[in-house]
Amino acid sequence: MDEFSFINAIKPKAYKQPSLIKGIGDDAAVLRSTSDIVTTVDTFVENIHFSLETMEPFHIGYRVLAANISDLAAMGAEPAFYLVSMCIPKKWKQESLEEIYQGMNELASLYRMDLIGGDTVSSDRLMISITAMGYVPKDKARYRSHAKPGDIVFATGTLGDSRAGLEILLQGQEYKDKNYYIERHRLPKPRVALALGLRDIDRVALNDISDGISNEANEIAEASRVELTIIEERIPVSKNFDQFSEKQQYDWKVSGGEDFELLGTVSEQGWKKVQAVAAETDTPVQQIGYVHEAAKPSVLIQSAGETKQLTKSGYTHLK
């Protein structure tokens, strides 16, 4: 495999974003905009974040870009550009690497995102680092620090599905809705439409559910200096989720992660707007708790009439 022939193979033939002045072909890309620019970066390592044991190269590309798009959605930003850097081992063939880019391109096309650059180097294992950028109207970005006492806590979609899909792939057993769970793991759908539809609301705190709501809720609580109470029975799950053990159900919906749904807080008045936008964008949304004052930021979870502290328990790097 030759680096330059590989770059030519994945180079876009046309660009979609009018604010792109120059894309791939020079030392750097050139953008022009009057909006605020939101930027996020994630790095994915083979056999830690993805494995050929559970997905094809196409799914790897689709999923790693979905993670970045979900971060942009949580900031209220409209996806626009992405850059991809890869550390590539010799065992990976160009055809498989192109499939990874095909997965990215399929998802990027849904949001008119342009691939504008990146880098490739050799390595002993495959690593993919994606930098994604999006636009948000001036001073309209959403922050974790926007939660206030009296707010409603809500979540989109159903939680625990991705972790259930991974379990099915690893165990190889038959389950109800098997293909549904596998697709939720391999081909997640970031909640961009809902996030963009909430722009008329003055104050919303959003966090993308990549590491489980136990982590995401605590991040909002810490940033906003409040206490969140989550009601376990209200956490949305898929209709056949009860086929898994009670421990699996609890662990996966609270700490499973990688569903790439949104966790948010909004005032009671703003909640009506959230529900309206959810209906317009065909986005399932559920009230799962509330926000209140506290001397120390924390998250509580109510379950079967008992209340206990919900500590961070999802996947944490370097731990």
Walk me through the topology.
Blueprint: H1 3-10, E1 20-22, E2 30-31, E3 36-45, H2 57-74, E4 78-88, H3 94-110, E5 114-122, E6 127-136, E7 152-156, H4 161-171, H5 178-186, H6 192-197, E8 204-209, H7 213-224, E9 227-231, H8 246-255, E10 261-266, H9 268-280, E11 285-292, E12 298-303, E13 306-309
Parallel strand pairs: 4-5, 9-12
Antiparallel strand pairs: 1-2, 3-6, 4-6, 7-10, 7-11, 8-10, 9-11, 12-13
Helix pairs in contact: 2-3, 4-5
Q: Could you walk me through the main structural features you see in this protein, from its secondary elements to its overall organization?
A:
There is one protein chain. By secondary structure, the chain is an alpha+beta fold. It has 2 domains: 3-136, 60s Ribosomal Protein L30, Chain: A (2-Layer Sandwich); 144-309, PurM-like C-terminal domain (Phosphoribosyl-aminoimidazole Synthetase, Chain A, domain 2). 33% of the residues lie in helices and 27% in strands. The chain is built from 9 helices and 13 strands. The protein has helices at residues 3-10, 57-74, 94-110, 161-171, 178-186, 192-197, 213-224, 246-255, 268-280, and strands spanning 20-22, 30-31, 36-45, 78-88, 114-122, 127-136, 152-156, 204-209, 227-231, 261-266, 285-292, 298-303, 306-309. Strands 8-10-7-11-9-12-13 form a 7-stranded mixed β-sheet, sandwiched between helices. A 4-stranded mixed β-sheet has the order 3-6-4-5, with helices on one face. Helix 4 packs across helix 5 (178-186).
